[in-house]
Amino acid sequence: MRAGKTTGNPPASNAFLQCSNCKKTLFRREFEQNLMVCPACDHHHRMSAEQRIEATFDEGTFEELDANLTSIDTLTFPDYAEKLEQAIAKTGRNDGMIAGKADIVGQPCYVALSEFAFMGGSMGSVAGEKVTRTLERAAKDRIPAVIFCTSGGARMQEGLLSLMQMARTTAAAELCRQAGAPFITVFTDPTMAGVLASYASIADVILCEPKALVGFAGARVSKQAQVVKAPDNFQSAEFCLQKGMVDRVVHRRELRDTLGSLAAMLAGGVR
Fold this sequence. Notes:
Blueprint: E1 16-18, E2 25-27, H1 28-33, H2 49-56, E3 63-65, H3 80-91, E4 97-104, E5 107-114, H4 125-141, E6 145-151, H5 159-179, E7 183-192, H6 193-196, E8 205-208, E9 214-215, H7 219-225, H8 237-242, E10 248-249, H9 252-267
Parallel strand pairs: 5-6, 6-7, 7-8, 7-9, 8-10
Antiparallel strand pairs: 1-2, 3-4, 4-5
């Protein structure tokens, strides 16, 4: 994976930050060049969608699709319209799911990735539509689909319209299977609830970043429902790997090359 771009010469007051895991003070420039991974404890901090695109796809190949799709407040859920406006203003995007087409180490792929800063990467009707279109396009053109997951789950403000996306995206994944188009997902921190319980967990290959939170219910809800004490690494990437839920935990530095190799190898089978 390529080194991340820095944000130029930050002001002296902004030249340092603190790792959220080990609390060590870090040079911002070194941190960004290390793909938002702490050089002291190796903790993988969350990346924005733009940083993920820059670090993963071949330079200049990402072409965004469906950027004009915007959720509407169909149920007139309290405060939803205001929260949508705030998220759009905060991120400069119409939704938390970004879809497009890009090359990964020379292999054309349809791609989608979540922006956690947009309402926690929650899956509403627009996110579901973008994931569905990504998978349908991959099936039609018989090229790989690669989806980065970063989400707290379905968007409660859209009610059943949000939950419907679980079925729609799952059906679209089946189209990929029938067409022989490879489908790869990457779990990043966090991958939870309705996203995990639909398209994310039925991919042909599931990769995961180290220590990513992966689960259905949150930790407090899970604890209330348990009759036995959960292991310390419960709902972590490593726990899911141990139980066979993911295929491989991949360090962020190795993710681009791993995806490129997988996409090229699996795409070869449908040519």
